[in-house]
């Protein structure tokens, strides 16, 4: 699990905490499974884009 930042438009950043990720064994990049990405997209859609920084906790 890790905390991931997502940019929303020019000004807003959303940090999602405790995201369950897989890590590439070769380059250590974080990989998100499709259902996890779908949940995060729902979170981001609910975020207020006029807020510069928002922090959510991922909950499956
Ligand atoms: Zn890789």
Short structural summary:
With 60 residues, the chain is of the alpha+beta class.
What can you tell me about this protein's structure?
It is a single chain. This protein has one domain (2-57). The chain has 1 helix and 5 strands. With 60 residues, it is an alpha+beta fold. 22% of the residues lie in helices and 40% in strands. Bound molecules: zinc ion (ZN). Zinc ion (ZN) binds at residues 24, 26-27, 29.
Draw up the topology in text.
Layout: E1 2-8, E2 12-19, E3 22-23, E4 30-31, H1 34-46, E5 53-57
Parallel strand pairs: 2-5
Antiparallel strand pairs: 1-2, 3-4
This protein binds zinc ion.
Strands ordered across the widest β-sheet: 1-2-5
* Percent of sequence in beta strands: 35-45%
- Could you tell me how far the N terminus lies from the C terminus, measured between alpha carbons in angstroms? 12 Å
Instruction: State the assembly state of the protein chains.
Output: single chain
- In total, the number of strands is 5
Give the proportion of residues in helices.
10-25%
Please outline the major beta sheet: 3 strands, mixed
Show unreliable segments.
none
Mean pLDDT: 92
Q: What is the approximate shape?
A: globular
Rg computed from alpha carbons, rounded to a whole number of angstroms: 12 Å
What is the N-to-C succession of helices and strands?
EEEEHE
Bound molecules: zinc ion
Derived from helix and strand composition plus strand pairing, the structural class reads alpha+beta
What is the overall number of helices? 1
**In total, how many domains does the architecture comprise?**
1
């Amino acid at each position: 699990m890790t905390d991931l930042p997502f940019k929303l438009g020019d000004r807003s950043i959303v940090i999602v905490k405790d995201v369950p990720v897989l890590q590439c064994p070769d380059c250590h990049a974080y990989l998100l499974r499709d259902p996890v990405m779908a949940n995060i997209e729902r979170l981001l859609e609910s975020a207020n884009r006029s807020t510069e920084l928002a922090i959510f906790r991922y909950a499956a």
